[in-house]
Amino acid sequence: MTHVFDEAIALTPTASDHVVRAQTHPAYNNMVGPFGGITAATVVNGIQQRPDVLGDPLALTINYAAPIAEGQWDLDLRPVRTNRTNQHWVVTISQSGQVAATGTAVFGVARDTWSDTEPTPPAAPPAEEVEVSEYVDFIAWAKNYDKRFVAGGMDGRNDADSTSTLWLRDRPERPLDFPALTAMTDVFYPRVFLRHGTYMPAGTITLTTYFHATAQELEAHGTGHVLATARAARFGHGHFDQYGQLWSGEVLLATTHQLVYFKDPA
Amino acid sequence: MTHVFDEAIALTPTASDHVVRAQTHPAYNNMVGPFGGITAATVVNGIQQRPDVLGDPLALTINYAAPIAEGQWDLDLRPVRTNRTNQHWVVTISQSGQVAATGTAVFGVARDTWSDTEPTPPAAPPAEEVEVSEYVDFIAWAKNYDKRFVAGGMDGRNDADSTSTLWLRDRPERPLDFPALTAMTDVFYPRVFLRHGTYMPAGTITLTTYFHATAQELEAHGTGHVLATARAARFGHGHFDQYGQLWSGEVLLATTHQLVYFKDPA
């Protein structure tokens, strides 16, 4: 049986070598358009399927220029420069002849070098001891994640600190891979909701994720929970940023940064 | 008299509406090719000069695909989607018909909203009380910055913490604007040098900066020192990330994230 995540990131060929076709999946809908994480994951999936791909994802930036409407969309993927150990991709998502998102990706070959991780994962009780929580019913995509908040849950409010930390995995369980990790870097609800304890119009404008994990580390992780944490630095003038980290035990899988649009509640 | 920074980011028209021409400036040379910060600043300058630009920089990603050789290079800037309050740009830097860098930018209009800044600037004595330090002589671009390290100076070594914090301004003094701020987000020397107390081959692969500052805040800052801080999270497999913040007093001007290539010293 195909996992719903794999259905949502599936691609079909087109007449063009560098364009593949995706299809929005109702299980990954957001309030307006699809969950940004599933769009980003589809891009990673598309590049990974290319016969000319070099190595694994190192960096991904996706700029959400307009909502994607329900239905088919085109993913244009061009490898504009291939070096000895890395490869640069330019990404364009279009629908009905209009650009809906732009992006770039860097893929590369893991080399053996000196290594160290400076931060430590946030303190958290084991996932089994933390209650599962749900986002509101109309956020379809969130139902595909088992989410266990250790700090900054969606039913809360914090007047000073926008940190959310949660145990996170696909529901049903699915082995962690690069597309799944990509989607998880966008799983945090907007930090401005936590500061106000209420909803307001908000959406990701641009997302950048750095993949520190190797394919071997993702395989070793398996289907267990990832520990994910994110916090904003500055809110103002209609935008805020968010910096996040995703951990597998002591292994820092990814760091992620995004800029989010928001409107004050009426 | 034109400031050397303005000479370095200067652009001339070409026969194409969406391509302008830049020229490397010896004062901003790095070890191989130009300082990545001056390339990024030139992109911001190019978009700001476009008659069809909407608002000010919100986000910029530049992927350094290959070194730019000394001489002229072409900057292709396309506004692929203009919304009510923001505008998405796709950036291509080429030289001799090859892609040397790719990128994307989001510009937008500042709106009045609720605001807050969660972190505080790093503790630092006043800039006047901190000694000016220089990078090594062959790093030409660094001579154009007054750099006063409060932590993690280039002559040091730290076995556990890659943080550098410094007071920073253009030399000679120059009023802070978006291109100058852009360049400053790449001013940190590679974090891996600090961890080892030595040089090794290293270079930025991709840089993403979010501009929290408004044009008014930059104008209010004037020519004084910015307080800049950066730290890596994970080193390994030939790469590390760096997260940084740039402050004007209590005002968080920008957050920045980059992925850097490195090789172990022989």
Automatic annotation (TrEMBL), chains A, B:
Superkingdom, taxonomy of origin? Bacteria
Domain annotation Acyl-CoA thioesterase-like C-terminal: ranges:
130-261
Coiled-coil ranges from the UniProt annotation: none
> What sequence ranges are listed for the domain Acyl-CoA thioesterase-like N-terminal HotDog?
28-108
Protein's name in the database: Acyl-CoA thioesterase
Which organism encodes this protein? Answer: Gordonia sihwensis NBRC 108236
